[in-house]
Amino acid sequence: MPHWLQLMMDSLPTLLWAGIRFTVPLTLLSFALGLALGLLTAVTRLFAAKPLMMIARFYVWVIRGTPLLVQLFVIFYGLPSVGILLDAFPAALIGFTLNIGAYSSEIIRAVIASIPKGQWEAAYSIGMTWRQAMGRTILPQAARVAVPPLSNTFISLVKDTSLAAAITVPELFQSAQRIVATTYEPLILYIEAALIYLALSSVLSNLQGRLERRFSRYGGTLEALQ
Question: So where does this one cross the membrane (predicted)?
Answer without folding.
Answer: 20-46, 58-79, 187-207
